[in-house]
Write a structure and sequence with these properties.
475 residues, 6-stranded antiparallel sheet, 19 helices
Amino acid sequence: MAQQTTALPERAAVRLTRAQRAARGRAARTAVPRASHAELGVGPGRADPLALLEGQGLTRVPELLPIRYGRMASSAFAYFRGAALPMAADLARTPRSGYVVQACGDAHLANFGLFASPERNLVFSINDFDETLPGPWEWDVKRLAASLEVAARSRNYPAGDRRRIVRATVCSYRRAMRAFAAMDALEVWYAHVDMRRLAALTTVRLTARQRKEMARTASKARTKDNLGALGRFATVDEGRPHLNAEPPVIVPVRDLVGSAAEQETIEQRLRTLLDSYAESLPSERRVLLDRYRLVDMARKVVGVGSVGTRSWMLLLLEDGRNPLFLQAKEAQPSVLEAFVGASEFDNCGQRVVVGQRLMQAVSDIFLGWVRAIGLDGLPHDYYVRQLRDWKGSADVETMVPDGMQAYGEVCGWTLARAHARSGDRVAIGAYLGGGTSFDEAICDFAEAYADVNERDHQALLDAIRSGRIVAETGV
């Protein structure tokens, strides 16, 4: 049963002394022992994970659902990435200490990465907030830990290496949270990871090859800008750029509607969408956005779990030449809402934007939200950001165990920083303590949940073979 979402605990905690907050955190160990977090929450009465996924599909674009299932079927790790809702249902049956943070809701290792700060520095942070909502901090930690176990299995790492990776990640989270507990609020708010600090956050000594790979990732990220996107996604015809069609992944609006009159109607809606979206931006950002004019738009399939939601790529130009690519991505209710209560925001796009600003060290200067009428004639909520702005991520498929451990440790630190900004970092740090009880419990949880994930992935493959679910592979 869903619980009413409570206000973020920091609002109440500020009235207590630091010593009182720490005492409350330590006292929570009695009610919810740290070792209890090894419990799975999977047992009699468990919801059918495939039924949950099918339920999500009822509000998505029907013709795109086979792509979603095809991508999820490709591996156990791909299935895990798309199965945030089934895992949320399982996590709702696990112990919780009672402390609420602004949770990511989908904190798997592929949802962390590099992007550009407004000052044009490369920073590392969480980069997907579709499911963000105030919720138990433990749920994010458990999803991150389980993702590392699942990814390590996909690389055929020995069991000892897998446990070492997960343990190091959780330990990094715990130690970081305790360090943030000793800081003042402004220090926590300003803390971030840039390229110079990445290696300093791990206990693994990176090899020369790994350092070069990190440098290559950073260099590649810097090429993913608006000019690069213009060359990748658009063609200039008689002096006017237009977006290329790559169906079914990229389909321009002109190919989604029939008559010229319909296209004109859609284009007018898009202009209205941009005007309404601009109202969610600070005044100085609206001035910047006003320099650009919309010239083309296409539906773009993105991700794994989000496939089927409405996602649009917008090409704008300044002076008819200089490009700005925006992404308007549909925001639906968070997968956490059924278990912790509805968002306080009526617009799901606003939920995503506020959560992202709370959790990220820095955010896209064009990050905003809007509600707009879709091609189906129904209203949909969107959040808007730049499509490409120095975005980069680690290649899980090529990681060696030491590399994955280093990556996991940085993710653990980053997640702790995000939680510390909104939650009672003093109480959570005191609850976690200086020992390894919590770390070992989460290692046990991750290992057991990876087994569950493999069974669920196999159930999806069986459902595809039986015809219950239609999947399109290789897209």
